Amino acid sequence: MTDTPASPRKARRKGSGVTMADVAAAAGVSMQTVSRALRFPDTVTPETRRLIEEAIEKTHYVHNLAASHLASAKSNTVAAVIPTLSASVFAETIQHFSDVLNAEGYQIFLGNTDYQSNREEAVIRSLLGRRPDGLFIIGTQHTRNSITLLRRAQIPIVEGWDMTARPIDGLVGFSNSEAIADMARHLARSGRRRIVFAGVLRQGDSRAAERRDGFVAAMAELFPGEKPRLCIAHDLPLAMESGIELLSRVRAEHLDADAIMFSSDIIASGALLEAVRRKLPVPEKLAITGFGDFEFARHLNPPLTTVAVPSARIGREAGRLLLEGMKGQAPSQKRIDVGFRLMIRQSG
């Protein structure tokens, strides 16, 4: 009788079947020590931690975070919800937010709502399903269902970029309406009397709506009895090309305008470049202002007058507030107004 040769064992994929016991054996320590080093690195000696890290590198071990989260009721993750991926100011906020959280060992889940309230609900529900330890959301205008989801999550929440009298939990932002009103006052002080507000107002973009409303209130204060001049587009994207189109619409509807306040630097820059191309004297005949102080604003010719928003500070403060909440610390402040700054340049 001949022996049947044993089937060759299937090679184990690196990382797929490596266990904590393999790491412990390679490091010459117990499994409990490896587990403790992974969950609480400061509880083992630097030498032991070095041995375990070398063993992990050698065995290609991947820590099972899901099991660890079940054991500790912590995920070491934070969720962030933003309205769009295309705006650099939001990217800067998230970058500085992430820097603060990464330094404390947290990773970021990111969700994009595209300014749609129903999509925001879906994004919030999906991110909360991953059991983050905290959540940062840009904006303060939410559906009732979204608010309920956030409050019932029972984790620290920070809203950003806007101000509201009734925040869900923490708040880091500024007044969009007051910022645009300050710009209107600047233009009025410089002798402008026929000021137009032009913007792309997408459904769900509460910040653009607040800027429009702030302009209307400022015009009532500065020029009582006069109808505010508005040029609002609901059919255009937030792009430089829209600035060209809005400039044409303003010139058609308000030919006597001596200043145009745009709701964003993106569309303001498109309008400014088009005005120069048309040989419209800026600012002598027509002042043009933006909102956001994007990096390119200062490099236009003429440089763009705009509102600077401390987007990096919003991210840092939001990260700090969440960290305090996730550590169970009483926050020094739960409502932080970071303010804004008028950047007066040559365009207006």
TrEMBL record:
Segments forming domain HTH lacI-type: 18-72
Entry keyword annotation includes Nucleotide-binding: no
Source lineage: Bacteria, Pseudomonadati, Pseudomonadota, Alphaproteobacteria, Hyphomicrobiales
Protein name (Swiss-Prot/TrEMBL): LacI family transcriptional regulator
CDD domains: HTH_LacI, PBP1_GntR
Keyword annotations: DNA-binding, Transcription, Transcription regulation
Lipid biosynthesis found in the keyword field: no
GO molecular function, one term: DNA-binding transcription factor activity
Domain of life, source organism: Bacteria
